[in-house]
Specification:
alpha/beta; CNF1/YfiH-like putative cysteine hydrolases; 8 helices; globular; binds zinc ion
Length: about 260
């Protein structure tokens, strides 16, 4: 069984493994509890979806105050494999767009700074949250099918190892996202390299949850330390935003950060 949605406001998913880390805040917010009108109803976290500036600003303010982080950092997500590691120097280069800070194009965000929360926006793509409680490195990774076949999770873990992350101690969580039930790729022979075909869950369906688990495990993260929400955004459109399910829609927020003293 995956994690439940809490009754807190705004409603959010909390993972069992990450909940055991003292001082860590993490959440995958659902689509409920915000102010955006249809088709962005209601807790849309992304300006570039076509929603009103002030509605997204209010939604992000709710998310930020819930996370209680001093700075909430996002990036321009481009379905690539770049990592933006937010240290003091990188922090200076971020652009303020109230109430958050936005970095250059990158689909993986990580930091050691306790003042920085990391925000990834999704609608079917996975957000993968990582924490190493010893080095206190945290990461939030955006991975759609392009990220999956580019192994952004494996690349991010390897980069973070050089900065002090210990994969053997790292906990990982995978957000609600496109499930094996709905990940249909009729042109998979053209779009998806053959090495990934063993992850098919049907003649033209793929299990990207299983692939992410395998990639995290191959990067040295213990199977027992990986928790997958196993909730499909396409199947649960009333709880989550789904690009495949709805087309024009909002983006969910997933956040990880250290509680402020
Ligand atoms: Zn589904």
């Amino acid at each position: 069984m995956g994690p439940d949605i809490s009754s807190a406001s705004p409603p959010r998913l909390i993972f069992r493994n990450l909940s055991r880390v003292p001082g860590l805040f993490h959440a995958v917010f659902t689509r409920r509890g915000g102010v955006s009108a249809p088709p962005f109803d209601s807790l849309n976290a992304a300006w570039d979806s076509g929603d009103l500036e002030e509605a997204v600003r209010e939604n992000l303010s709710r998310i930020k105050s819930c996370a209680a982080v001093k700075r909430l950092v996002s990036s321009v997500q481009v379905h690539g494999d770049e990592l933006n590691f937010i240290d003091e120097k990188a922090l200076e280069k971020l652009k303020a767009r109230f109430p958050i800070l936005v970095g250059p194009p990158a689909d993986a965000l990580a930091t050691k700074l306790s003042s920085v929360g990391l925000l990834i926006k999704t609608a079917d793509c996975q957000s993968i949250l990582l924490v190493d409680p010893d080095s206190r490195i945290i990461a939030n990774i955006h991975s759609g099918w392009r990220g999956s076949i580019g192994n952004i999770v494996g690349k991010t873990v390897r980069s973070l190892e050089r900065l002090g992350l210990n994969p053997a101690r790292t906990l990982a969580a995978v957000s609600p996202s496109l499930g094996p039930c709905c990940a249909e790729f009729v042109n998979f022979k053209r779009e998806i390299p053959e090495e990934f075909w063993p992850f098919r869950s049907g003649p033209v369906h793929f299990d990207f949850w299983a692939l992410t688990r395998a990639q995290l495990a191959a990067a040295g993260i213990g199977e027992q330390n990986i928790e997958c929400a196993a909730r499909c955004t396409v199947c649960e459109k009333s709880e989550f935003f789904s690009y495949r399910g709805e087309g024009k829609t909002g983006r969910m927020a997933s956040v990880i950060g250290w509680n402020q003293p």
